């Protein structure tokens, strides 16, 4: 199988270039790939304002860079993100990305933190199976999980997410399209478009992959207002998205109280693939540190409110009260300060 690799550059700074794998150019042999190269490349550039083409080539798919993955349960492959914040060195690759292979289809659970990561995941899937890809499930709105989705849309996959996700993305897309390349580098982000799901879920729903099915469960406002979990009926594996953080400090971008309520009545499933951090044998182990952190955050916010502190006094007081929770959490100070402000705003009128 051949793939079309386009060299795309920022029109504003033509030295910032990156190879982009275009799934629409996939062909069985070099001649067929070359025959459609011009039309696929020009169509893709036309759909990506701000980019210019610097030529294209056809190459065996086996030459395309693939993300490393590990099979953590039969047919379940996980790429482990770096357990840290966004940076130029990780290129946005901080979330765990997974795919699940059935007998008829392969599903993706979070397609990556950039176009480049999505392409690397696509190449990793094709090294394991030639089966059709889809659904591509977005566990929630955050770009470190979903920014690679357009690669799979171009490959013909159905993109599935919570019914609340498109509005959440619309409210933040412009901000993220500026802030993320500033954090990871324009080249690492080159060609990335934050696309919304084309199929929306507002109640539990199953997807048959052949020989196994995935059950999606929307979750009331918790880590964000667009969370869903995924359960594989064949192996029992539970994918929590960012409802479970390990290693990287939990980010409250929805409801602290809602998140604690979810943790108090967690779904069943094992092993657990968290949004960040290592795969765990069960939810109790996976969420133990996060539960301590979020309970301590709630208690510290409540203490600041009980003391009558305004927001500007409360945030440093909450951060100081959280110090015993520091442990080995990555990004602890910056994230805890943001969480303090978010939780204060949520609990202020209790
Ligand atoms: Zn998240």
Short description:
The protein is an alpha/beta fold and 350 residues long.
Question: Could you explain how this protein is built, in words?
Answer:
The chain has 350 residues and is an alpha/beta fold. The protein has 3 domains: 2-63; 70-285, 4-Layer Sandwich (Metallo-beta-lactamase, Chain A); 293-347. The chain is built from 10 helices and 15 strands. The chain has helices at residues 30-46, 115-128, 143-146, 149-154, 165-184, 186-189, 256-264, 283-306, 311-321, 332-347, and strands spanning 2-10, 13-27, 51-60, 70-73, 76-79, 97-101, 106-109, 133-137, 159-162, 199-201, 205-208, 213-218, 228-232, 238-245, 272-276. The strands form 3 sheets. A 7-stranded mixed sheet has the order 4-5-6-7-8-9-10. A 5-stranded mixed sheet has the order 11-12-13-14-15. A 3-stranded antiparallel sheet has the order 2-1-3. The N and C termini lie far apart (59 Å). The structure holds zinc ion (ZN). The site of zinc ion has 6 residues, from loops.
Overall domain count? 3
Give the CATH H-level superfamily of the largest domain: Ribonuclease Z/Hydroxyacylglutathione hydrolase-like
**Total E-strand runs:** 15
Note the quaternary state here. single chain
Shape, principal axes of CA atoms: globular
**CATH topology group of the largest domain:** Metallo-beta-lactamase, Chain A
Please trace the helix and strand order, writing H or E for each element: EEHEEEEEHEHHEHHEEEEEHEHHH
The SS-based structural class is alpha/beta
């Amino acid at each position: 199988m051949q793939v079309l690799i386009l060299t795309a550059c920022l029109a504003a700074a033509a030295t910032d270039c990156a190879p982009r794998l275009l799934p629409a150019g996939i062909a069985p042999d070099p001649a067929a790939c070359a025959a459609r190269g011009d039309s696929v490349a020009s169509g893709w550039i036309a759909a990506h304002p701000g980019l210019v083409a610097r030529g294209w080539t056809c190459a065996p798919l086996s030459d395309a860079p693939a993300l490393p993955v590990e099979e953590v349960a039969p047919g379940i492959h996980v790429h482990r993100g770096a357990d840290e914040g966004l940076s130029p060195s990780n290129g946005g690759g901080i979330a765990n990305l997974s795919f699940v292979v059935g007998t008829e289809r392969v599903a993706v659970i979070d397609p990556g933190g950039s176009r480049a990561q999505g392409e690397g995941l696509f190449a990793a899937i094709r090294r394991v199976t030639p089966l059709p890809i889809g659904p591509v499930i977005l566990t929630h709105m955050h770009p470190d999980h979903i920014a690679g989705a357009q690669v799979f849309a171009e490959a013909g996959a159905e993109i599935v997410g919570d019914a609340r996700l498109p509005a959440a993305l619309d409210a933040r897309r412009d901000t993220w399209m500026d802030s993320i390349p500033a954090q990871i580098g324009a080249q690492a982000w080159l060609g990335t478009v934050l696309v919304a799901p084309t199929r929306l879920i507002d109640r539990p729903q199953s997807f048959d992959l052949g020989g196994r099915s995935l059950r999606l469960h929307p979750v009331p406002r918790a880590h964000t207002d667009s969370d869903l979990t995924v359960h594989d009926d064949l192996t029992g594996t539970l994918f929590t998205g960012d409802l479970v953080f390990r290693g990287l400090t939990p980010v409250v971008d929805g409801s602290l109280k809602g998140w604690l309520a979810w943790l108090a009545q967690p779904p069943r499933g094992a092993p657990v693939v968290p949004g960040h951090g290592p795969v765990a044998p069960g939810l109790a182990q996976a969420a133990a540190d996060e539960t301590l952190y979020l309970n301590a955050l709630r208690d510290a916010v409540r203490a600041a409110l009980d003391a009558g502190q305004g927001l500007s006094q409360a945030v440093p007081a909450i951060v100081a009260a959280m110090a015993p929770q520091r442990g080995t959490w990555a990004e602890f100070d910056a994230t805890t300060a943001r969480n303090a402000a978010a939780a204060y705003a949520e609990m202020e009128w209790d």
